[in-house]
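Q: My collaborator sent me two sequences in one message, no labels, and asked for predicted structures for both. Can we handle them in order? The first one she listed is below.
A: Yes, handling them in the order given. First sequence, followed by its structure tokens:
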Amino acid sequence: MSTTSYIGRKYSEGKIFPVEDVLVVEEPLKITINKVPFTITMRTPGSENELVRGLLFSENVYSDSLTDPILSVIEKNENGFITGIDVSIPKEKIGKGIEIARNIISVSSCGICGKSELDTTPMNEKKIVHTEKLNPERIGRMFEKMNAAQKTFKQSGGSHAAAAFTLDSELLTLQEDIGRHNAVDKVIGSLLLQRQLQKAKCMVVSGRISYEIVNKCFAAGIPFLAAVSAPSSWAVDLAEKVGITLLAFCRGDKFTAYSGMERVELMVDDTRVKENQSPPKQA
């Protein structure tokens, strides 16, 4: 259950009266690797396997995309929510990401919080190389499909969403969570578990774009990243560096490209002024 009811006291026009609101559930999830503590992440219960699989993959702790690690539930709370998972990984398959230890709780709003140091160098320092172009008319369709499937948000108004699509705007998976980065990890984990990671070409998110979300998108090899809200400066710099086309402020048929605009297929005819070309002067 991703939502729950709470009673609040609403003030309006000088009066106070009780209201019953639906809120997004937030619970801690303790993750151990080979029974050694790795992190505690605050998240919305549900899709725990997807969250852990995606988190370890995007942080280069377990980067094998064809074989899944063994995940075991080790703890539940009194409400039946899973609060502890142990991941069994052969030592030779543990990646360098394990060296960037987390020494405090990773909060819902910031998955990067809790790391004892920051790895600002993308894995292998490589770019995503691809020749595909994205039809801009399909961007709006992707957001329409994501919005239509956001059940938790419709109930509570308090969850973020992330979704993966093909370039033909086919929805591969959608995940919701109180944390933006958790939703992205759940999407990556879902793609891995379904063996559909290679089909994913565009990641769509409901909030703003941070450095960490770009880094996760890069780790998954997804070349297009689009969001409803703004990107950060670090997010734009990293997207440009690693070859990700970053689109923000996506509203209807409008968006702003901050990197990789050359990979968006512009539909320009002879009667319109081409991009970067000044209009003819009036006589």
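Q: And the one she listed second?
A: Here it is, processed independently of the first:
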Amino acid sequence: MSAIDLLHNAVFFILAIGILVTFHEFGHYWVARSLGIKVLRFSVGFGKPLYIWRKKKGDDEIEYVIAAIPLGGYVKMLDEREAPVDETELARAFNRQPIMNRIAVVAAGPLFNFLLAIALYWLVFINGVDGLKPVIGQPVAGSIAEQAGFSDADEVLSVGNTDVNTWQAFRLALIDYGIDGGLLKITVSTADQMIAVRELSIGDRHLLNSNADVIEQLGFKRWNPDIPAVLGGVTEIGAAKKAGLMQNDLIMAVDGETINNWEHLVEIIKSSPGKGLEFLVRRDDTELFLTVIPEERKIDDLVTGYVGTYPAIPDEVKDKTKIHIDYTVGQAFAKSLEKTWNMSALTLRVLGKMLLGEAALENISGPITIATYAGITASISVITYLSFLAMISVSLGVLNLLPIPMLDGGHLFYYLIELVKGSPVSEKFEEIGQQIGLTLLLMLMALAIFNDIQRLIN
């Protein structure tokens, strides 16, 4: 990855974290101020302040900070546990607030993450959704999909009780219904337009115990029609862009071997990671040679090549493979609520599977992977980047509600105990909890960064 790519990813990662943290902390800030609690500082980032400004809010002067480490933030409120409080302001100290007020302030951070996700998904849906139809190619021989009777050009209509209209929705539905194993009913429209129900026998397999895509694990393939090797475009980051390939280029041959169709080209690229390939290209009325070196991508133990291109799809194939879904304002809002709820529930279920040892810890991603995806999604389109932000905002909201000390959910857990026993937990209990929480978070961060490094190495 070039220095420009790294800078590109870093910029959009910092932008993403800045937006998510600001909304999260603004939730704490806004509810605290609304309840009359005195706020002293609003910080985006940790560590050394890079920029500080102060602003009067009523009788209060609040310090706003942008700090050096952009991996979180905090809202500092008046609190006797941190510093002496003037007697005239005791009623505005956080620790003197009724328990329901404290719960409201703490819960507001994750809540604002969910509200942000709803708003972002609404923007995505109001702009319409472009996707690939869930049309299946001939499944892998001997796979679960083949055993279930799936055939070439089956179009998936529903998975379980969930209607499916895009390939991505198909993938998410397989994870949602399939992580518990068992028998999964999938309704399809066959190549001859007949409705059929396929029964996918997942059994006691744990689909998330592998890094492999769930689609590949089950033996599904996307339907690949026979189309010419004409480039519909190249991604901003990738070997194709570096080599000078352009939209509408016709790839006539690779290393002297005539290219029959797009699938043929893909197979050659996938089988040549890191190897210089000489492309014979027709561009308008000119033929030229370009050297393309496919980058390496490791999936399980298989290393394949990729260059960052996508095909030009003929209109008749587009009708079969692509879909555009428009939503009214109301439909988009309803869809954003549904999407946020479903992603939250799925995140919780995946975390539960990890705790039970039924999902690989390698699925946990850290800042390097998130930065990479921030850069990739920003390269594709603004809407794709907004969808990425929404997904991360949901994850941040869910994770912060976990009953782990030092997270918002840990504080809410203390308040739940206080509601039951009628008095706050002891300082010793809270101190021990903070130490446990810090240890767990450091271990989680170390695991996430280790996974990131492993992905880079692979």
